[in-house]
Known about the structure:
It is a single chain. The chain is mainly alpha-helical. It contains four helices and two strands; from the N terminus they run ααααββ. A hairpin with a 7-residue loop joins strand 1 and strand 2. The termini are far apart.
Amino acid sequence: MSDSNYINEISSLVHSLRLAEKDLNISHYNETEKKVFWTILVSISKSGKCNITDVIKNSFLSRSTVYKTITKFDEDNIVSIHQSGIDKREFNITLSAIDN
């Protein structure tokens, strides 16, 4: 693939991502918050589940940043957090229904 084609493909992917952010009503969040959201989505897509530890490990962000962001998402009804029945120190995350 030529450099020009590669750049055009990346540009198209970024454009698609920005449209998806708008559709999911997350475009107003900052880039760190979006990274947390996409990390949650990928984790759920790959394994069918997600917890805060997964997000910290896969996003390379601090526990406090991840926790603050997930709490904000929970308040905004983007995600739901539930204490794990197995490990009371852990919280499971699910994506909430998002109105388009």
